[in-house]
Every structure is written in C-alpha cells, then in structure tokens.
Amino acid sequence: MSLIKSNIKGVDDSNYWVKSQVGAKFHDNLTVEKSSLGGLGLFYDGNEIDQDTEILRISSDCTLSIHQCMKIMNSGVDDKGTFAKTFIQKCLDFYCNGKVTESRILICYCISMEVLNRIEKLDSLKGTGFVRNYLKILLNTRVSNVDCDSLSLLEYYKEEFKGNSLFDSVYKQLINGDCEEFAKFIEVEALENVYGEVISAEEIQHLVTAIRSRILEIPRETESEGDFTIDITLVPILDFANHDNDKVNAYFDVDRVNGDIILKLDKDKIKGSKGKHEVLISYSRIEDMNRFFLNYGFIPRSKGIKLIEIPFWGYYKDKEIPLNVTEILYKLQETPNLQFVVKTDEEGDVQDVKINMLDDYSFLTMANVQWDKYFIEGEEEDEEEIVSTLMEKMSVDEINVAMFKMMKLVNKYIKEYPSKLKNFLAIADEYELNLGETRNIVEMIKFEEQIAEKFNAIYEKKKPQDAKDAFDMIVPPDECDENWTKVRMYPIYNFEQELLDQQIKIEQMTL
C-alpha cells in the first residue's frame, strides 16, 4: 500500500523513502495528497471508529531534535566520521554563539548535515539514511510568510507599524547578513576553501524558513523515571498534517515504551465521518496570529478564537495621553500593546472583537496619579508593589474612569487605523518585485483591517457612554484564558517618540 499519492518535489521515489529510510508504519487507509488548505496533507479514508486509532508511527531515531542530532553527530567512527563531527561542531560554535533558541540550534544541525551530504560525508554518520531526502523536501517547501518578501516593502512596514517585536526579530534576521555570513564561514573557515561554495545564503534562508514552519513540540522521557521534557522536533510525514483547531480530529503522542511518535485519530472528533477526510491536528491551542503568520506562513481562518497584538501606548499620539506614558509603562513593566481577542466563524470572517485586559494595568496611565511619588530617583522600584498599592488606593469609580478614558482613546485610534492599513496596501500593490520576491505581509494587513473595521462597527453600535458600557468591549475575567497572557509579545517601549514629543513641547513653550 502506497502512502504518498502526490508527487513530492525533490524525492524520486517517495514511497521507498517512507518505508525503507524513514521506516514509517501507517494505516492502510492513510495517504498523503494535495490539500485544499494548501500544499500536501494527510488523509484517512474510512468510516467511524469505536476507539482512538493509531494511523502513523515514526521511530524517534528518524526524527530531528537537538537530542537526536547530537546522537547522530557523535555516531561517526572513522576519519570521515571525525571530519563530520568536527565540521558540525565548527558550525555550532559559529552560528549558535551566545544566547540562542533551541530552534536555531536545530536549524544549524540541519544546515550542517545538508552540507555534509553535498560533499559526500553524511553517510559517515549513523542514522542519516532518511535525512538526505528529508532535507530535499525542506529545500522544496514553500512557506508564505515574510521571509521572501521585498526587503524594501518590509522596511516600509517596519517604519509604518512600529513596536511589533516578533516582526522586528524576523526582519533583523533577514537584513543582518546572517545567512550570508554563515554561507561564507562554511566555505572559507569550516571547509577551508576546499570545496568552493557548497551552499548559498538563499538556500540557508530557505532551510531556516522551512524548518521554522515544520517544528513540533514533542515530549521526551528524561533519565528521571516518569519525567518528561519538551523537544523542538522535526517529524517526517507527521509534518504533512495541517492545522485546524476547530476541525481537529487527530493528535500526536509518544509511545512511553520505545519513544516512537504516534499519530492517532480521535474517535469523538470523527464521529459521523464517512469516506475520505483530511487528518487535522493542532499546532498550538492558542492561535496567536503574529506567530502563526511569521512561523507557519498562514493565518488560521477556522471557527474559533484568535489573538493579535497591536502596539498602542507610546505609538498613538493624543493630547489626552501623558507625554511620559512610555516611561511610566516601562517602570511599571506593563505592556504598551493591546491584545485583541477575535472570534471568527466557519468561513473565517470576523464576528466579534474585544480587548484582553487580564493582568494588564496599562490603563493606570490614564488615572490621576502623581507618579513622582512612586518613582523616586535613586531608589529601585518594585513595579508589582506599585501597581498593587495603586489598585488598593483607587476607588472603583476612579478605576472605571481611567478605564473609560483608555477605551475612548482606543476607539479613536482604531477608527484611524483602517485608513493607515489601506494606504499601506495601496503602496504595496505598486511595489515592483524582483524575481522570487513576494508581498505576503499584505495578508496580515488585510486581516488587521477586518479586525479594526469590526471593532469600529461594534463600538459604534454600542456607543459606550460610561465605564460600564465600555466594559462590554473587554473580555470578562471569567472568560479569559490565562494562557493568552503567556503569548504576549516582548514589549518594545517607544522612548524615541516620547523624547521627540517632549522636545516639541519645549520648543512650543519657547516660542
């Protein structure tokens, strides 16, 4: 029985690779075919099941995690194996110097193995039989995120929509010559100019993008019996499964006996299903739009709750906002961003938009507070204690007034936001793209436009006249998921704008 029904670019005999190199064990009714969600997907052709059913099993030896890659690196025994190990270590020392993420280390291992494959040294390491074709698949994976977007367009976006730390991180990687430097290091330092250019900067960037889009969080048992850790892992074949939190009908787990990664159909989720249907898993229970778009290259449009953050405090100018709002927020360690909670229907259309204020006390900047009493020069502040003290001292009415002032400002900002988004879309549409360049960033802009317009429509309909009305635009605490706060973006405080505003005020006073 053949698993692969659609051609996989770069792999001559994909079913041989699945059975003989990956050693995958799969249900007779499971196939890999083209998906309406884009690219390939896993499909199951069958009726209802009376118990959760295993449909795919992959040995942990045929996955790529830091733990497994280290085993592979140390597996060589002869001179070629020593050369391969030394080469990988050189790459790790260069590319993973300093404080780095687990995914960056995994990316480095994969790039190193691709280079070893091209100079015919990969076979000197044990357990790499499946790696060669898997890396070909990654090199032919197309991800619709910003990694191939016009850099001048991304620069324009960065200037127009400041404060998105997730985007800034990706943009920095694209422009800092990271891939160019690594490609040159491999050619000149690691391989000592013996082989010439083995891998290009463009190919390295492609692998970085593809790997980020396919990594899964897989539990692994530690040496302490019963304890598990989470590994960032690439799992061949399982990573063909697409994401849909609303229609999810399968889940992956680990065999506690041998460490195999297994994919199971959820009997309760496919109840009533007949014939062929796509096997859908959840990449993340929390659908943060910035992370999904920048990592996976798509914006989930299924029914459910989505999160998106928009920088606000210190980025929106209004006479009602204190000039030193950024300084206040920084000292309180409160976020300058607004986290919107978005509900979408089955068609992916935005139905409701509210703000999550759980553990967010940024509204205190709108309260009548003498901040110099709390921020005494030369003394170290305890931001949690300051917030706690303020909340205890302020009456309910004072808190409500501050919250209502904030919501009126948010309303003013979001009213202006669609025109700013439309202007960007118009300019992006006129950008001349070089060969291979894209303008995928516009997909995120279009989604933000829908959110802003829906928020404005709801606000206009409610016409809040006081804090009680304004609270209807905020998610009630008992409906908040505490995990929403865990995916908040790292804050970027806009001190540059604050200093500019203060300078303008000084000049105006002088005049």
TrEMBL record:
Domain of life: Eukaryota
SET domain span: 28-284
Signal sequence interval, chain numbering: none
Coiled-coil ranges (or none): none
Protein name from the UniProt record: SET domain-containing protein
